[in-house]
Amino acid sequence: MQISILRSETNSPQSYTVEDKEMTLLSALTHIKATEDASLTFTAGCRASVCGTCAVRVNGKEELACAYKVQDGDVVEPLQYHPVLRDLKVDKNKAKETLLKSTAWLHSFAEASLTHADEKFSERQTDCILCDSCYSACPVYAVNPDFLGPFALTRAYRYSTDKREGDVKTIIDNVQTNGVWDCTLCGECTLACPKGIDPKMDIMMLRGKSLEAGYEDPSFAQQSFGTPNFGFDPNAGF
Amino acid sequence: MIDVLIIGAGGAGLTAALSAKEAGASVLVVGKAYPTNSQTSMAQGGMNAALGNVGEDSIALHVQDTIKSARGLCDEKMVEQMCTAAPKAIQWLESLGVPFSRSDNEGVGTDTVAQRQMGGASAKRACYAQDYTGLKILHTLYDTCLKEKIDFLDEHYLLNLISQEGTVTGAIFLDIRTGEIKQIDAKSVIVATGGYGSLYHGYTTNAYGATGDGIAAVLRAGGSVSDMEFVQFHPTALKSSSILISESARGEGGYLVNSDGERFIDELKPRDVVARAIFAEFQNDKEVFLDVRHLGEEKLMELLPQELALCKLHENVDPAKDLIPIKPVAHYSMGGIEIEKSFEVQGLKGCFAVGECSNAKVHGANRLGGNSLLEITAFGKVTGKNATAYAQNVELKKHDKKQVNEDRLHIEALYANEHEINFYEKRETLGKLLYEKVGIVRDNQVLSQAMEEVKSMQAEQSKMGLNDKSISNNTNLIDYLEFSSALQLASIIISAALTRDESRGAHFKLGFEEQDDEKFKMHIVSQAHKEHSCK
Prior knowledge:
heterodimer, A: alpha+beta, Ubiquitin-like (UB roll), Fumarate Reductase Iron-sulfur Protein, Chain B, domain 2, 2 domains, five-stranded mixed beta sheet, two-stranded antiparallel sheet, elongated, B: alpha/beta, Flavocytochrome C3, Chain A, domain 1, Methane Monooxygenase Hydroxylase, Chain G, domain 1
């Protein structure tokens, strides 16, 4: 089988021959590095889809290298919207900053009586391995590099629904700027997630919580609905 | 100057960081990847705490089970300390927001945390979050570290500790991105770098990076290691990929069967016993399978969703319909850095060690499932406090540039090494060699052969150069340094295994099949370039 990998030094794809048998992309990459080209650079850890280290793009779609079975003709590239450090290895620091900005943590602990149903309610969201696949798939980054993005918003939502959270309002406050309203609801993040998480739905749920908290969709607010202009802007000066 | 420098950003490192920060220290956590890449994410089954939420349980029983499984090689005081701290550790994780699985019992707080059966436990004691317990604990700890504004330095590889006259005053790192070699001075240092299961490359459930870097660095700085011969083999890894299938699969009622469809062992015995029983089946040319079909798809999806996906992906079997082919592989290092009760590394002042890299003498000859997540959180907390207390009383040492200069020269020399032998081939060789010759069942003659082979690999190391000469983002260099750690530790493991002429827990030796308390109820302690001592 032939696969092609985007090399950063030349900014062009390089073709490699891999054995014609069923194997994961990570096995193929490891084999190439060990036997053929030690300069081929990628990152990996657990081999078991849980450490979030090895996400790349294959034929334009985000995949965990350890969970993707190589096909003849595959085109392998680094994640999008992350500075490429070398070949498939990217800098994830800026993406991780979205967690900090969205304050995706438990703000104020209050003891609660949790049930099996409560566990199930946010089970999927807490399966997140921070592989950055959704960040790479999100088209909003093409226009707004400061967007909080899918994984941070999913995590903010997860804490906002936790019955132990005594300060949901602060979480909601912190996902307004470059946050829930900047999402186009295109669903690319949901398609990209290797753990079956649906950030788009989580963002919609956060929008609902935002409305309940008194926020409104800024694009909606900016629209003119033909109301007469009395020369008074209710938002000015406040 | 930083008060507490923490090397390693898994569960032990993050817990220590939070605890040190709470105690008033300035903290920096340095890791070779990103915190959530850590191997803690791979812990599946659960975390033990005698909450008694599901049935009768007590701290005394937890202590008793742990001591029994340790086969006389644990420090009972340390076991008591850990088991007593367990309910509080769960309470703490609950307060951070860990999404534990829950029982519907109308209780509040940790009373609702679900608990499951694990091997060697006399009660349903393991608190869990489906089969993602480690992942969910690690990520919640990470979220909390962000909340508490803990400083992180990612993608920095530990080269050496800075040790001046037996006192550690910082560490030297290779910035993987830039290739720069950096000195970080600190009043105290915590090593939380994980275990050495990946020495068994290709025959381990562990992540690639579990090469014992921190343990090797402590040895080079003059510290000691102990119980290194005790490597736990997990009974159920997938046959073709060595990927872990959690013990909870058996805890929830899964069977082990051989090619004839016969059960041959009580599946809930401790891991060493089960692994040996499987090995015996292999010796009789039988294959071994995990059978969870009778649990039904719905229950499997509920309790073991991760396992289901991994079996389908890596073994092409559907556990709801098919038998799962398995083999035991290296999973956990009981041995590690020799520490005092304060978690200070023996012989290295100002340097502490916690988690799998350390030997806190709680697992002895065989760790119980569910006790490692407990160890990293319960002891991570104590270590963070102790390192802070030490830092508060430390006299500032003069910045010494000797180590950083040595390390720069060493790395330069590596780039200049001849590339006659491909170390990646040797990494494969070492993994296979350790699995076959320093594995589940050992033999002195075979161990001696293994030692010869490792020694000759060590002698050839100067011919193993780098193929990739890039300064920045050189993962070929990191792979090489990790292999060097592995090679350094391999001979220590074999040497200790040779010395221990008995069978105990995970160490089983032909010709010496009995436990010999008179001669060997002791820890084999090793230092770099020195003969063993026993204590």
